[in-house]
């Protein structure tokens, strides 16, 4: 009888719903913490409940696999050809000559698909953000409504941000590719804003997880006028932050391994916002000689 | 860096290298390798830049793994043969493990992925140490055990290193990464001949060290970290620009410069050992590196680069010109006629 009960209990262990009812009487208080960590009934607001297990969502299809393999092999062939041509697929003399370069421009839906938008809906906030092509397909329009109302989940203190971030470049077989911006020293943006202050973020994709939250930021102040403005932000101005906190130990950004660029709005002002971007480019400004804008002197001298 | 810390790191590096190259027992050799690994970590992460820290961590993880593999290989050999002598590595599994471990230590293909990243994250002086001094202990171990190792595996490592070193170096725009891939390619040449004529490996290593030191010291003199800076350095130091190009061509193995000597002798020895296909393949693969260096020399020295040269910060050198750079540059470019003398020295 006792054996039957134990057996029934052990079969119940296999199914998720009964596990906590069975484990606790069996092992008492020992496992309370791990039980709560194994599966939690708390779900962040804004996230969908997980109904199907992730392995069920995979579509095993031989034909799809073959097509994917063909696509990757053609990407690899293109990469090999570009490698033989020169840095980034352009000839070496073009690399020597370039003083400006357009990295992202918005002329079609395909250009918009290279970007990802997000807002504080992820943490339960109420801001909205949308991205669409501007008039006559000249530029992208990032617009929405910022809402600084804090989600009532007991742990969030601040809210109200919207952002747009470029997807990282991916080579064949999902290998990461990086941009080499070492020939340039400034970011050149042609934008038309609404007077709000934006933050430009550059992510250099470190190898280890210790530094995965490292981001280089600087501000972009827009005018609200009907005219387009060209904003030049030198890379020497970008400061290092990690998880949103500006670091004490500042270092200049290294431009040889850039992963993504992003724009964030978080100026704590409720209301609609709009930013039109024509293109994002790079510039080698010969007049700009500053190497790094922040403290480089020794902070605790030994004398 | 704190002078005391610098002293301890440098002394530890010298001590670690000396311990490894003078040891007969595997444990002592391993101790020297570990001392070297730990001593260079503060030198790599000196600037505390996130990329420097990343480079230091990558270096530590790969080198520790390799050291552990060396220890495991020696232990399994000791288990089967009962002795710890470095030259008596007889067990086949131990030989295979040691080959893999030394390949990781040196940065031979297919364990080379850490090397360019670590060099890119370090300063030029530390990169010089990583390319030259840190290669000495593993090469010594390889020389001592070369007669027991599988020649086919060594040939495979050599050809693949020459291939990857040449291929990946083609489009590099950062000088440290260029020299990293050049190092991988040179190590391939050294490994190709180690099983047949270890003296040639020592000669190749010595000449490679001399040429690489000349290049690194020249780059450090004018603080050149990327190609675009190198190409406009003729306004600052025209003579150094020209001699640096000659040294780079020597590194690529172009006759009649010094760098051609080891390649010529290795091809000759491989042909004597009836390994003509290997000799052909490895010499064809070195053409990739030569192409790149020749293109660089063409754009920087033979023709004027198309960039305008009104960079204010490249006006004057900060450091006084060093005589060591001059001596090494001269020897890196003009030692080929002295080949008979040099061959007798090794």
TrEMBL record, chain A:
Q: Which domain of life is it from?
A: Eukaryota
Tell me the GO molecular function terms: unfolded protein binding
| Domain called NADH:ubiquinone oxidoreductase intermediate-associated protein: residue spans | 104-277
Gene Ontology CC annotation, any one: mitochondrion
- Whether Cytoplasm counts among this entry's keywords is no
SUPFAM superfamilies found in the cross-reference section? Galactose-binding domain-like
List localization entries.
Mitochondrion
Which is a GO BP term held by this UniProt record? Answer: mitochondrial respiratory chain complex I assembly
Which keywords describe this protein according to UniProt?
A: Chaperone, Mitochondrion
- InterPro entries for the chain: Galactose-bd-like_sf, NADH-UbQ_OxRdtase-assoc_prot30, NDUFAF1
Mitochondrion: is it a keyword of this entry? yes
| Similarity comment: family membership | Belongs to the CIA30 family.
What does this gene product do? As part of the MCIA complex, involved in the assembly of the mitochondrial complex I.
Q: How does it assemble?
A: Part of the mitochondrial complex I assembly/MCIA complex that comprises at least the core subunits TMEM126B, NDUFAF1, ECSIT and ACAD9 and complement subunits such as COA1 and TMEM186. Interacts with ECSIT. Interacts with ACAD9. At early stages of complex I assembly, it is found in intermediate subcomplexes that contain different subunits including NDUFB6, NDUFA6, NDUFA9, NDUFS3, NDUFS7, ND1, ND2 and ND3. Interacts with TMEM70 and TMEM242.
Recorded hits in PANTHER family, A to Z, give: COMPLEX I INTERMEDIATE-ASSOCIATED PROTEIN 30, COMPLEX I INTERMEDIATE-ASSOCIATED PROTEIN 30, MITOCHONDRIAL
Q: What is this protein called?
A: Complex I intermediate-associated protein 30, mitochondrial
From TrEMBL, chain B:
**Residue span, NADH dehydrogenase subunit 2 C-terminal domain:** 290-343
Q: Which Gene Ontology molecular function entries are recorded, alphabetically?
A: NADH dehydrogenase (ubiquinone) activity
Q: Which residues cross the membrane?
A: 56-76, 96-115, 152-171, 178-196, 202-220, 240-258, 278-298, 319-343
Q: Which GO terms describe its biological process?
A: mitochondrial electron transport, NADH to ubiquinone
**What's its EC?**
7.1.1.2
Pfam families assigned: NADH_dehy_S2_C, Proton_antipo_M
Q: Which GO terms describe its cellular component?
A: mitochondrial inner membrane
Keyword presence, Transport:
yes
Its recorded reaction(s) are: a ubiquinone + NADH + 5 H(+)(in) = a ubiquinol + NAD(+) + 4 H(+)(out)
Report keywords, A-Z. Electron transport, Membrane, Mitochondrion, Mitochondrion inner membrane, NAD, Respiratory chain, Translocase, Transmembrane, Transmembrane helix, Transport, Ubiquinone
- Record localization: Mitochondrion inner membrane
Tell me which residues make up the NADH:quinone oxidoreductase/Mrp antiporter transmembrane domain.
23-288
- What topology in the membrane does the UniProt record assign? Multi-pass membrane protein
Family listed = Belongs to the complex I subunit 2 family.
What this chain does, per the record? Core subunit of the mitochondrial membrane respiratory chain NADH dehydrogenase (Complex I) which catalyzes electron transfer from NADH through the respiratory chain, using ubiquinone as an electron acceptor. Essential for the catalytic activity and assembly of complex I.
Q: Cross-referenced PANTHER family, in alphabetical order?
A: NADH-UBIQUINONE OXIDOREDUCTASE CHAIN 2 (PTHR46552:SF1)
According to UniProt, the name of this protein is NADH-ubiquinone oxidoreductase chain 2
The species is Pavo cristatus
Top-down, what is the taxonomic lineage of the species of origin? Eukaryota, Metazoa, Chordata, Craniata, Vertebrata
Q: Which gene encodes it?
A: ND2
